[in-house]
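Recap from last week: sequence in, structure out.
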Amino acid sequence: MIPVQPSAQNPAHPRQQQQPVDGKALRQVCGTFATGVTVITTGGPGSYAATTVNSFTSVSLEPPMVLFCLHRQSRLRPVLLESGGFTVNFLTRQQEPLAWAFAGRESANIEDVPHHRSPQGPPVLSEALAFLSCRLTEEYDGGDHSIVLGEVVGLGAPGQDADPLIFYRGSMRALEERLTGAPRR
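Predicted C-alpha cells:
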C-alpha cells in the first residue's frame, strides 16, 4: 500500500514551504495509470538512436503536434537535437522484448531490429503497430526530464490489427479484452 502523503501547506500561509513528495511514492501512484509503450527513434545512418518511452501524448490536431518526456541524460537526446526529427513507434504486444531492449542504459542496436527509414529520415520500426514521423519544434525544461514537442509530418498504421503493448504498475501487459464496438452498459 502506498502511504498517503498529505500536504503540509498551511492555508493561511500558501507560500510556506511544504515537504516534497517522495519520488518512489510518486512513481508508484503514477504507475496506476496505464499507458501505451513507444520506442522513439532518431538520427541518420551511422548515428541512429532509440529509447523506450511511455510518457507520450497527442497535443494538438491543428497543427498536428505530439510530445514525449525524455531524461536529460538520455543517450537519445544529443542525437535528437542534432537530427532535428524523431519517430514515435507504437509497439504491439509481441514487441515487449524490443521495448525492454531499448529501455536500459545500454540499449539494443537499431541496426539489429527490422526497420526502414521514413521519408523524413528517422527510422521506423517495421513491425510497429503505428508510427508518427515528427519534426522537433521545441524542448522545454521538465525538471530531470526534457519535454520534447514535435510537429507530425508523416504517419502510418501498418500493424493496426495487432494488440497494443501497455505499461501498468511497472510491467508490460496486453489489453485484457479486445474492443468490440458494442456499447458498455
